[in-house]
Write a structure and sequence with these properties.
Distance between the termini: 45 Å
CATH superfamily of the domain at 18-112 and 156-188 and 255-329 and 365-474: Outer membrane efflux proteins (OEP)
Shape: elongated
Number of helices: 10
Order of helices and strands: HEHHEEHHHEHHEEHH
CATH architecture of the domain at 18-112 and 156-188 and 255-329 and 365-474: Up-down Bundle
Radius of gyration: 38 Å
CATH class of the domain at 18-112 and 156-188 and 255-329 and 365-474: Mainly Alpha
């Protein structure tokens, strides 16, 4: 055999045994070059000390898992722990992850030969006009058969490998989506808990305001009876009281809905009692906020990783579509025995075997295979655009959250100043009343302004707490890169 023939033979054997996987080999997209989210993303955010107050500083790096413990609220920790254990949506995502894993493992079976065994028995009679089936002059007979069949598709062009690769990538998609669902759940519980606490505080302030308005109305009616107040003043105060009372039902409805949402997120019905709700006065605002580079964010956020895995699915799909247009080589073998009785089934004289090989080349399918390949390439382009859109959306999400935190600090500073000014005004009005300089209605007016300022301050505090939690989610929510199990 000449060297040229030996080389060709070796190449042919290597092609048959190993083959090459057609289609693109997937590579993770390059990390973005930008180093900031906006021009002010490293600016500190000072605010007066107190609930949700104080200066927040940036710490380079990714958020740690369990970031919600930084709020120092045992009640919040309990709500989140319960949600992670009992939330039905997260349970469904975890079940979907198991389905994807088992589907991937099942697909791996195409990489190895398929082996099956058969055992059968037959009782039959043949026509006497034909030769006897058995090697004897018997027209009525029994036939026992046992055999093993082996089949294998040579993965010459990588059809099987690309199929397994795609199934694995689909599992990765579900794994990252499950982690994204977990992160979203944690943030939703924290936001709902903060909102419920805010609404309870606003309801308490509104109740105090209504009590003040009623007291003011009583004073005015008494003054009207003694001729010291006009009827128009009484009517105006009745309108103010009605307006204050009208603001109460929407607050109660919002508070009830917030409690219902917490119940849903923690896997319980609204009729069941909730665990202790959080107390705003017992919450500590996290002072150190993580801020990772955009190039690191693409590895931290599971939604970006899911989009990357989906791009991998589409890449493998192109290889599958190409391989389906190429020849398919199959090998088969069977061996067994057949005899009129079980006792002689394993006799060498009753054994049979067969070996076979086949090659199938698609020739005409009405253009279906060509268009499927073109569709797979278009699906890859779609997945690539979706990945880039997800990355840009993530950068926008972080930038928006940073902007919200900066304006939250400013709004909190303004709200504190407004509350302090209203408190000072209320103190002056009370001294003036005690000295007989103003009527008591002036004190009540200043008291109403103070309660309104307190409500605005509570809203500013909760906005800062909520947007801080949103930043942790925007940066990946404490999820650290974990390779899904093989």
């Amino acid at each position: 055999m000449t060297p040229r023939i030996r080389t060709l033979a070796a190449t042919g054997i290597a092609l048959l045994l190993g083959g090459c996987a057609v289609g693109p080999n997937f590579h993770a997209p390059a990390a973005p070059a930008q180093t900031a989210y906006d021009h002010d993303d490293k600016v500190a955010m000072p605010a007066p000390a107190g609930i949700a107050g104080g200066t927040q500083h940036w710490v380079e790096g990714a958020p740690h898992d369990g970031w919600w413990h930084a709020y120092g609220s045992a009640a919040l920790d309990t709500l989140i722990d319960e949600a992670l254990k009992a939330n039905t949506d997260l349970a469904a995502a975890r079940a979907a992850l198991k389905v994807a894993h088992e589907n991937w493992q099942a697909t791996r079976g195409i990489l190895v030969p398929n082996v099956d065994a058969g055992l059968g028995t037959t009782r039959a009679r043949s026509s006497q006009y034909l030769s006897p089936v058995l090697n004897a002059s018997q027209f009525t007979y029994s036939l026992q058969t046992a055999q093993v069949n082996v089949g294998y598709s040579l993965d010459v062009f990588g059809l099987n490998r690309r199929t397994v690769e795609q199934a694995r990538a689909q599992y990765d998609v579900q794994a990252f989506q499950t982690e994204a669902a977990r992160i979203s759940l944690i943030n939703n519980v924290a936001a709902a808990a903060f909102q419920e606490a805010s609404l309870r505080a606003q309801l308490a302030a509104q109740d105090r305001m209504i009590a003040i308005q009623r007291e003011t109305l009583g004073i005015l009616k008494h003054q009207q009876d003694v001729g010291q107040a006009a009827g128009a003043d009484v009517l105006a105060q009745e309108a103010a009281l009605a307006q204050a009372e009208a603001a109460l039902p929407p607050l109660r409805r919002a508070a009830a809905q917030a409690r219902d949402l917490i119940a849903y997120l923690t896997g319980r019905s609204a009729a069941n009692a909730l665990p202790d709700t959080i107390d705003l006065n017992a919450i500590t605002l996290p002072a150190d906020l993580p801020l990772s580079l955009p190039s690191e964010l693409v590895r931290q956020r599971p939604d970006i990783r899911a989009a990357e895995a989906n791009l991998h699915v589409a890449s493998a799909g192109v290889g599958i579509a190409i391989a389906n247009r190429l020849p398919q080589v199959t090998l088969s073998a069977s061996a067994g025995g057949s005899a009129p009785g079980w006792s002689s089934l394993l006799s060498a004289s009753n054994a049979f075997w067969s070996l076979g090989a086949g090659l199938t080349q698609p020739i005409f399918a009405g253009g279906a295979l060509l268009h499927r390949e073109r569709g797979a390439r278009a699906a890859y382009e779609q997945a690539d655009a979706q990945y880039r859109s997800t990355v840009l959306g993530a950068f926008q999400n972080v930038a928006d959250t940073l902007a919200a935190l900066r304006t939250d600090a400013e709004a909190l500073t303004t709200a504190v100043h407004a509350r302090d000014a209203a408190a000072a005004s209320q103190a002056v009005a009370r001294r003036q009343f005690e000295q007989g300089q103003i009527p008591f209605s002036g004190v009540l007016t200043a008291e109403t302004a103070l309660r309104q300022a307190e409500q605005a301050l509570v809203q500013a505090q909760v906005a800062r707490l909520t947007d801080t939690a949103a930043l942790f989610q925007a940066l990946g929510g404490g999820w650290t890169e974990v390779t899904p199990k093989r």
